[in-house]
Design a protein that fits this description.
Blueprint (H helix, E strand, L loop, with lengths): L2 H16 L3 H9 L20 E4 L2 E3 L2 H11 L6 E5 L5 H10 L4 E6 L2 H13 L5 E5 L12 E6 L8 H6 E11 L4 E8 L3 E9 L16
Parallel strand pairs: 3-4, 3-6, 4-5, 6-7
Antiparallel strand pairs: 1-2, 7-8, 8-9
Helix pairs in contact: 1-2, 2-4
Amino acid sequence: MDYEQKRLKLAERLREELNLSERVYSAIKKVPRHLFVPEKYRSDAYVDTPLPIGYGQTISAPHMVAIMCELLELREGEKVLEIGTGCGYHAAVTAEIIGKSGIVVSIERIPELAEMAKQNLSALGYDNVFVIVGDGSLGYAEKAPYDKIYVTASAPDVPEPLIEQLRTGGKMIIPIGETYQYLYVIEKKNGIRKKSWGAVRFVLLYGKHGFRNFEE
């Protein structure tokens, strides 16, 4: 199966439909999504849809990854916090955009997925992505402040620790809601500015500042 040709076709379609910037287009075109999904789903890796990755989680559709990267206005050399590593694909796209001089700190609550992501990212040479097992709703204060933060699971509201860990002048992208979810762009300058982008569908964010944990 010609994955490279399929990836190029997908990237070109997304560039046309979403008017992608060159930096986001190049990242989508370069990152091999098929290597981040379970083998039985690889034939669908370049279909623009979410796919199961195990443990009740999914890899986001490529168009949503591209949209979130565009909304964040990622720049080379930035420090980015990702909440919800999953299989590591979104982190890889982000790492491509911010370059070797930037870093991605990614939090994943499911240890098995964190390990999968670490292996995927390491195999592809993304040594500026650091995957940590933990409660994503708490962020990761040790490396704060962050230039950009994005959340790949829907929260009941914007977790306060994430606002605190976002630098002044920084930007956050987060889906909010349970049955009905909307993607919000949060800007931190002269207070907090919150703007809805539109309706979306994500898995739920579990944790202290998220929805309840499964075991509760």
